[in-house]
Amino acid sequence: MRLEPEIWTAEVVYLGFGTPMLRGGLAVVGDHVAMTGGLEELQRAYPGAPVVHKGKALTPPVANAHTHLDLSRLPYFEGPYVGFIRHVLANGAGRGVEAARQGLEELRALGAGAFGDIVARDAVMDWLLGHSDLPGVAYREVIGPDPGKAHDVFAALKPQLLAWKKREGRVKVGLSPHATHTVSAPLFRLLVEFAALEGFPVQIHVAESPEESRYVRRAEGGFVEFMRQMKLPVWTPPGVSPVQYLADLGLLGPGVTLVHAVQVDEADVRVIAQAGCRVVSCPRSNRGLECGEFPWALYLKHGVEVALGTDSRGSSPDLDVRNEALHLWGKVDPRVLVRSATRGGYRVLGLQTPRITRGSALSQVQSW
After folding, report:
1. Residue 1 falls within a domain, yes or no?
2. How many whole angstroms separate alpha carbon 21 and alpha carbon 222?
3. What is its EC number (predicted)?
4. Helices 150-165 & 185-198, crossing angle to 10 degrees?
């Protein structure tokens, strides 16, 4: 074991609390952190200690706040979002426990500290609750666009959710009404009200693509053709943005996390902020599926907590949430990106953020 002190630094050093530091560092002795602080302060405390540059960032373990682990065997896809939906349906046979196991193993190998997963199959939920050694939230996905079947869908799901909740351990159970275009208004209300009453956290995909916005506003575009091909009801459009649609239904609140939220304007972001919702951005997936650029400046202006997720292996090259941040390095303040990949993710998942302090093991320090 090397006992001579070193000072580790990076472009951004974040301890899991406070403000990420641009000229910060860690004094390291052996396998532990001996001191944290500004680089000059550390050099005064440890004169002569070599300064070791560790790359872009030094942080606690990152949190991947949004993925679909059971799509880990899905071939990678780039192209329009509606094409991706068809791609998922065409490769549905590969979904299930083995794919989720593969995804969880990848997260573990990457050193992720926590995860949020959208679960489409009961068997995957059972497996995660019984086998995951990583903390996180498994959000049971619900799809039901037919308003006439809303009560039947909810009645079938409710006892299963309550049974899963009794089995919570390192993994908590959440609920994910899939999206504005795949869940009817009556089913949305039933699910979100139930989640609030029983304490289930919620994630909803919203305002992900231009096609979704066209469908919600005017019932136009690729979603109309897709819904008809799938023999699903095409609704009378509410004529507002996807975010405003959820707000008008009374669905937004502190227990609800919105995923993607790319196709928004300032009025939408103001609604999100006033409701106390958090947001998860998946930059590489949004790029590959032609969804547009996430408006970081708007969210920062209105004080919305933003976390980072990878989405699935079907639309992202890997499950490393650090690569989501590095994809935007130089375009967005790196301190914002580092906080989103760590504290933002843990806060979305309702978990305590790991902290780097004097005495912390170096195994709990990630170098990007």
Report:
1. no
2. 45
3. 3.5.4.40
4. 20
Catalytic residue (one of 11, 106, 141, 208): 208
For the chain, the 3-state helix, strand and coil shares in percent, each to the nearest 5, are: 40, 20, 40
* Judgement on whether residues 344 and 359 belong to the same structural domain of the protein: no
Between CA 266 and CA 302 the distance in angstroms is 9
Active site residue 211: no
- Identify the band that residue 12 occupies on the pLDDT scale cut at 50, 70 and 90: very high
pTM for the model stands at 0.96
Residue 366 near residue 43, CB atoms below 8 Å: no
Distance CA 112, CA 342 (A): 10
- What span, in angstroms and rounded, lies between the C-alpha atoms of 197 and 114? 25
Q: 91 to each of 86, 130, 178, 204, how far by Cα in Å?
A: 9, 26, 19, 23
Closest by Cα among 296, 298, 297, 258 to 278: 258
Check if the beta carbon of residue 72 is closer than 8 Å to that of residue 100: yes
CA dist 231 → 224, 225, 228 (Å): 11, 10, 5
Do 168 and 271 lie in one domain? The reply is yes
Region 169-198: mean pLDDT is 97
Helix (H, G, I), strand (E, B) or coil at 330: coil
Mean pLDDT, the chain, as a whole number? 96
Task: Quote the pLDDT of residue 234.
Answer: 73
Does residue 293 form part of some domain? Answer: yes
| Position 36 confidence tier, pLDDT thresholds 50, 70, 90 | very high
192-226 residues labelled b (16+ CB within 10 A) or e (exposed): bebbeeeebbbbbbbbbbbbbbbbbbebebbbbeb
Structural domain boundaries enclosing 41? 6-59+355-367
